[in-house]
Amino acid sequence: MKFSSVALAGAAMGLAHATLTERADITDADILNYALTLEHLEAAFYQEGLKNYTHADFQKAGMQDPFYANLKETASDEQQHVQFLTKALKAAGAKPVEACTYAFPATDVNTFLALGNILEGVGVSAYLGAAASIMDKTYLTAAGSILTTEARHSAYLRASLGEAPAAQAFDNPLDFNEVYTLASMFIASCPDSNGKLPVKAFPALTMPSMAPATTGSKVELMAASGMSTNAKDVYAAFITVTGPVWASLESTGDGKFEVTIPEGVAGQSYVVLTKGNKQASDDNILAGPAIIEVGEPNGPMGVGSQCSGRGSSSMPSMSAWSSMAMPMPTASMSMALGSMPSISASASASSTPVFNGASGKNISGFGAIFGFLAAVAAFLQ
Question: Are 188 and 101 contacting, i.e. CB atoms less than 8 angstroms apart?
């Protein structure tokens, strides 16, 4: 059930009675603006996608009804998150960040959904990672209520792409700088009026190929040129809720590495390169995180009535992905962050959502997205 405008305002005013706790490094207001930054990005992403691609486009790509209506509901959720956090910050006397300009590399329905899947997963990890830093329980509850909704979005999109909706029993938390490193790749510029958040981007780390990764397999990683260190001191750490899972890493020269996928990671996973193998923290992360999807695809999924799958004939060739023209962020992406125009999302979602039945081999969209990430990695430095 959606918040009415009155309920939304009331909830936001309720947060105003909470205390904006300050610590030496980051305040609760910073955390809410950090969350608002991510919600603006997600809301803008869906707004752009629903503007660029019609209901018919989604059907041609194999997304069966009511997928499009449910996607519009997801877009509406993200816009309501923006409104909620904006009102809460204003009610508490803090200045909300405003809209940024974004550079999303989606060029068709397939790449749009691939990127949406990634962003929703990052959103879940971002809220989970920030939870421990929120001092006031009122803000913690509000953030938690958004987190659970983001997790549902993520599960729905994962299933639509033939991935396990819940690939493992525990989600992976990401810290502020790790999330900002990923988000920065899609931020072209922000208003000068936005306050600077206490975050920084690490040198980028990308996975050039999005071929399926399984436990024990090797994948290639590419670090941005800004990462300079003795290769013998570099280690790979997969981020999990119980701490880093260390993985075998081999330098192949020119900022490239091969990493062996360890046991204990599954689904949308994050790997960073560290100096030493004692911890993975802001002090010793050299590059990353890179996003790696770990696990075998599920194949077609669906509930309810007939759910037609997507055949390979509906998917573009890999050469088409590699030739896409990707937007390049500008140098002003460094620190000021922000909101976006309202979304018109009058959807009638099914009470029995139907996953689109996509082929489990649909990885082409991921290859395109990560091709873009690789292209901007050096630019970020």
Answer: yes
- Distance (Å, whole) CA 373 – CA 114: 13
Q: Count other Cβ atoms within 10 Å, centred on residue 252.
A: 12
Residue 310 forms part of a structural domain: no
- Is residue 320 classed as helix, strand or coil in its secondary structure? helix
Identity of the residue numbered 209: S
Q: What is the identity of the amino acid at 82?
A: V
User: Tokens in use for 83?
Assistant: 């409104």
List the beta bridge partners of residue 237: 246, 272
Identity at 20, one-letter amino acid code: L
Cα→Cα distances 90→11, 35, 164, 169, Å: 12, 14, 39, 37
Answer for the pair 39, 328: CB distance below 8 angstroms, yes or no.
no
Q: How many CB atoms lie within 10 A of CB 28?
A: 24
What mean pLDDT is predicted for residues 291-296?
Answer: 91
Domain, as residue range, for 282: 205-294
The per-residue pLDDT for 359 is: 35
Distance in angstroms (rounded) separating the CA atoms of residues 42 and 21: 27
CA distances 125 to 86, 174, 333, 358, Å, are 21, 5, 22, 25
Q: How far apart are CA 263 and CA 372, in angstroms?
A: 28
* Domain-embedded: residue 97: yes
> Measured between alpha carbons, how far is residue 147 from residues 37, 39, 201, 324 in Å?
15, 11, 23, 33
What global pTM score does this model have? 0.77
> Does 72 fall in a domain?
yes
**Domain boundary, last residue among 170, 198, 226:** 198
Question: Exposed, middle or buried: residue 343 (CB in 10 Å: 0-12, 13-18, 19+)?
Answer: buried
Residue 76 carries which side chain, given as an amino acid letter?
S
- Tally: H helices and E strands in the chain: 9, 10
Percent of the chain's residues with pLDDT above 90: 52
Closest CA to 116 of 48, 208, 181: 48
Instruction: Give me 324's structure tokens.
Output: 């896409």
- Distance between CA atoms of 150 and 152, rounded to whole angstroms? 5
Task: Name the nearest CA neighbour of 178 among 130, 243, 227.
Answer: 130
Asked whether residue 313 is assigned to any structural domain, the reply reads no
pLDDT tens column, 13-47: 344 333 333 344 688 888 999 999 999 999 999 99
> How many angstroms separate the CA atoms of 206 and 218, rounded?
14
